[in-house]
Amino acid sequence: MKKGLKITASALLALSLMTGCSGSENETITAGKATDELFEEMQSSDSIDAADVTETFSTALANSEAADSATIGTEVSIELTDAGQTSSSKNSTQIMYMPAPDSGDTEETTEAADESAEGTTSAEGTEAADDTEDIDRVAYVNITNDYDGNTNTIEGYYEDGYLYYNLGDAKVKETMSYTDLMYIVGSYALQFDEGVVSGAYSTTEGDNEAYIVQFDPDAMAEMMMNNMLAAGGAFGSDESMAINTAYLYFEVDPDGNLAGFNMELDAKFVTSTTSEESVTEDATSADNEAEETASEAETTDDTQTVTDVTESPFVYSVTATFNDLNNTEVEAYSDLESYMDVNEYLEQQQAAEATTADTGEVSETVTGEEAPVSETEAVE
Q1: Residue 258: partners with Cβ closer than 8 Å, 6 or more residues away
Q2: 168 versus 1: which is more confidently predicted?
Q3: Using CA of residue 79, residue 80, residue 85, residue 87, what is the dihedral sign?
Q4: Exposed / middle / buried, residue 146 (Cβ in 10 Å: 0-12, 13-18, 19+)
Q5: Which 3 state secondary structure label does DSSP give 378?
Q6: What DSSP designation does 177 have?
Q7: Residues 114, 181: Cα–Cα separation, whole Å
Q8: CA pair distance 196, 159, nearest whole angstrom
Q9: What's the rounded Cα separation, in Å, for the pair 111 and 106?
C-alpha cells in the first residue's frame, strides 16, 4: 500500500527516532506506558513547566549519549488502517558500543580532537571530530524488522571503519563510518520544543524521577508534518494529519542520565478529494429537491462540487532504553580476515545468476522443443 509505506518511512524520519527495546533491563519503561490513564493518575503529582520538562529531557538524553560505552535498545511499531485493511510494522534495534581496546585514554583522544579542529572551519572541525570518533569505537548491533509477520534480522560487529555481518550463508564486511552506523541504528534521539507541550507531571519511580508529558494535538501534528516535509516526505495539498492523543513517559536516573522513554501517538492521515459530478434530475423531483441540493453542494449549471474525505488511522509507538552506561563491554568477532567485501560478494552473486540464466537458455534450446522457424527460413 502506497500510503502505508509513506507513513512508515516518514514517521520514523519525522521524529528522528530509531527502534528496538531488545531485552530491556528497565521493567518500568515498556511500550504502551504513556497513556491517558497514567497522565490522569500523575496529575496528583508535581506539575512541571513546559520549558523545564523539555530541558530536563534533552539534557538527560545528552548525558546518556555522552557515555563512553552504553547498551541502547529501541523499538518502533506502527499500525496503519487504510481502505479497511490494517498493516503493521515493527523495527527493533540493539546497539552496544565502547571505546576500541587500542584507542588509548578517552580524555587524551578528546583533547587531540579539539586540537585538530582548532583553526579549521566549522565543517572541517566536525569532520575531524567524526573521524576521531569513528576510529575509537567498536560496536555490536542487532536489527530486526517485522512487516505483517515477515521478519528479517541482521546481526553485526563494527570495528575500524567496517561493519561485519552475515548475508545469508556468506560472511561480508561493509565500509561504514561510525557516524553512519549510528544514523542507521541510533536515531532514538527524540527532539521536541516546549511549544508542543500542553501539560507535564513528575513523580518518583524507584531511584529514578519519572515524567509524563501530554502533547498538544494541533502543535504536534504541525511539527510532524513539517519534519516529514523537511525529511523529503511527499504530501499533497489535499493531505493532512490529525492527532487524537500523544503522550511521552520518561525516567531520569540519580546521575541525570536518561534511563529510557516511551511515546505513544494515536493519529490519522486525512485525504480530501474534490471532484465535479453531473447532476441529473427528473421534472417531478427537480422543484422539490432544488433547495436541498443547493444546501449540500455548490451547483454550477449541470455539475456540482463534491468533497470526499478519507481517513487512515494509525498508532505509533516508540520505546528506548539506555543501560550499562560506561559499563558496556563488546565482544570482538574473530577471524575478521575471512569476511569478503559486500560489493565483491554481490558482484559474484550477480555473475553466478547470469551464468545460470545463460546455461538454462542453452539447455532449453538443446533439450526442449524445436525453435520456431521464421518466415524467411520457411521460404528458403
Answers
A1: 57, 60, 61, 63, 64, 250, 251, 252, 322
A2: 168
A3: negative
A4: middle
A5: helix
A6: -
A7: 23
A8: 40
A9: 9
Lowest mean pLDDT: which of 27-36, 201-210, 281-290, 332-341? 281-290
When pLDDT is averaged across residues 160-189 and rounded to a whole number, the result is 87
- Structural contact between residues 30 and 21, judged by C-beta atoms closer than 8 angstroms: yes
CA distances from 321 to 59, 97, 178, 205, 251 (A): 16, 14, 20, 15, 10
Q: How far is CA 104 from the centre of its chain?
A: 34
Residue-wise pLDDT for 243-260, tens only, equals 999 999 999 999 999 999
213-230 confidence digits (pLDDT tens):
999 999 998 888 887 777
Terminal alpha carbon distance of the chain = 54
- The model carries a pTM of 0.73
Which residue spans within 7-122 are E strands per DSSP?
46-47, 70-82, 85-99
The set of cell numbers assigned to 128 is 575531524
C-alpha cell at 33: 506506558
